[in-house]
Every structure is written in structure tokens, then in C-alpha cells.
Amino acid sequence: MAFKAFAVISMFSPILGMTSFWAGGFFGRGYRDYDFGSSTENMIAVVTFSIAALCQLVHIAGWVRLGRRSVESDLIRAGAVAVCSILTLIQLWARPGQLEGGSVTIVVLAALVVSLIGLLLFLVAGSTAPFPDVDLTALSDDDRNTLLAQRAAALTKLAERKLIKIRQANKATERPLGSLVGRRIE
Description:
2 domains, transmembrane, transmembrane helix
């Protein structure tokens, strides 16, 4: 549950920051009589893009620590932050007086840099080597039963350590041998 909440926050914080300019009436205000530096949408953007950058850093650190292979959701999250950052920078730089590098510009650039680093890592980590093909029909019944027992024991141990849910372990135990291989990124 915590991972899902983290994913939602990391995905929607840059979207909220980007749309705060639209909701603030970016196109409807007169440029001469409005102080963009202290506007509410600038404060929202600083907070949301700071959260987005921190979430990306935590995601990258966890990904490196766990030695994970990239999955599509990694790429989608990093890509969403990058796209929202670029669109926000375009909006910011279209405003007069924003090119000097205010706090919003710095935070959005930081989020963009971190998301581009994440995208690069996640893309490079995708393996092009195919999973080895194993002919499971050539196994004897004793070998098959031994492998199934070892897999069930490993899944039970993972569930005991709360690395996976008991329901997931039970479903995986019921699957045929060789069916738990993850998807490969191409």
C-alpha cells in the first residue's frame, strides 16, 4: 500500500505543479500588474516539483539498492516528471521576468535533471538478452517435485519476511513450473 501511495504521489505531484499555472489563470492575467514571483501558483509549483524530485531520488536509490530490472512503470513515472518539467519550464519562460532563475525555475530544472537521470538508468538497465529457454518436459517427476518444493519454500520464506503478501505466495505456488519468469524489456 505504501508503494502505491508513493507511486501516486510521484506521478501526480508534477502534474499538479504544471497545472497550477493553468488554474491560476496564466493566460488571462495582465503581465504588467501581476507579481509572478510571489504568486500562489509559483509556491504550489515549488512544493510539488520538490516532492517530484525527492520521489524520483528515492525511487532511483531504491532501484539501485535492490538491483531491479526496469519495468514500464519506472519509465512512465520518470517520463511523466520529465514531460511535466519541460512543459512547466516553457510556461515559466513565457512569462516576463522569469528567466533570471527564480526558485521555481531551479526546482523544476532539478526535477527535470533527476527524472532524466532516472530515465537513462531505467532504459540502460533493460536487458536485451533473452531468458534462457528451458525444456521443463524433459525433467523427471522427482526433479519436477523437488523444484516445486524448493519454489514453495522460497515463496513461503518471502511471505514470512513480508516481502510479498501471503495471497501472492499462494497464487504463485499454484502456478505451473516455469511460469513465474518476469517480463523482459525490449
